[in-house]
Amino acid sequence: MFKNNEYYIGKILEDLDFISDHMKSVNITDLESNQLIQDSMMFRLIQISEKVKCLTDEYREEHFNIPWTDIYGLRNRIVHDYGNVDLGVIYDTLTKDIPDLKEILSKL
User: Fold this and answer.
1) Which one, of 74, 56, 41, lies nearest residue 9 by Cα?
2) Which UniProt keywords are present, listed alphabetically (predicted)?
3) Fewer CB within 10 Å, N- or C-terminus of the chain?
4) How many C-beta atoms surround the C-beta of residue 63 within 10 A?
């Protein structure tokens, strides 16, 4: 299968849908106390950032309003500092940034 920008945006949207669907009933206390929720949400954030890196430079430059560098930077913080990840930042990302990103990408 040929994997182009549209393919990766579609896969990112699948991850965003997963996060949105599962975070509807999760509050910060749930996230802090449930390792399964933490792992599944952070895994999806990592997957999103890995797919962002697969987008062409031209595509990312064309859509400069999307914080591509921040998305990948979060991946690095999760992967390289997993034991010290600020769950408050993760929660804000999941509940505030993800819905915004989903709205933007769904319009592309």
Assistant:
1) 56
2) Hydrolase, Nuclease, Nucleotide-binding, Phosphoprotein, Toxin-antitoxin system
3) N
4) 15
Q: Which domain holds residue 10?
A: 5-106
Q: Is 34 left (phi over 0), alpha (psi -120 to 50) or beta?
A: beta
Q: At what angle do helices 35-54 and 68-80 cross, to 10 degrees?
A: 130
Task: Read off the tokens for 36.
Answer: 């399964």
Structural domain total, the chain? 1
- Each residue's pLDDT tens digit, 6-24: 999 999 999 999 999 999 9
Q: What is the DSSP annotation of 14-50?
A: HHHHHHHHHHTT--HHHHHH-HHHHHHHHHHHHHHHH
